[in-house]
Amino acid sequence: xxxxxxxxxxxxxxxxxxxxxxxxxxxxxxxxxxxxxxxxxxxxxxxxxxxxxxxxxxxxxxxxxxxxxxxxxxxxxxxxxxxxxxxxxxxxxxxxxxxxxxxxxxxxxxxxxxxxxxxxxxxxxxxxxxxxxxxxxxxxxxxxxxxxxxxxxxxxxxxxxxxxxxxxxxxxxxxxxxxxxxxxxxxxxxxxxxxxxxxxxxxxxxxxxxxxxxxxxxxxxx
Length: 222
Fold this sequence. Notes:
Layout: E1 7-8, E2 16-21, E3 24-36, E4 41-52, E5 59-62, H1 64-69, H2 91-102, H3 105-113, H4 117-129, H5 138-143, H6 157-181, H7 190-202, H8 206-211
Antiparallel strand pairs: 1-5, 2-3, 3-4, 4-5
Helix pairs in contact: 3-4
């Protein structure tokens, strides 16, 4: 499956080759090289990582193989501004927006999540309106519904997936702490927890050692 955004094609020196099939130029990457004793030379194993755009030979539409073999490459977080429907379905959105405003959920989420709070609200409203929590269908919803993100940005599938994974990880960490304490963590408990962990580091890197992690330099004392 090819993703719906464009990236720069990696350099030829990275094992990149091009092959034109029925008018479309596909980009291949040699991810492995094996020496063939019978032939006496190295044979590469290639896989497609994208297909070249029609208007720029330096850009391509990547597929999931590109994300696998080039995880460090910079990906666009938002889709183009033209990627919106000319008619937005706003009825249910306005009702939910009123409820969110009355309970100050947007403000609370802003304090907790920060700049991605709008995306969090969009995903929550999407699951209610569409009665679906499958992330792969969110771009279709975002195409023809108003959004809570700044300037109603439509984020790419990769950005949405990374965001959901980060929220899941934070929930797992919070759940682990609460399971040890045997009670829920309140907002006022968070500075206490951070202070305790910093003291453990200052007193002998105990937290880093317990987690088997390299300690961060210049840990502040609390």
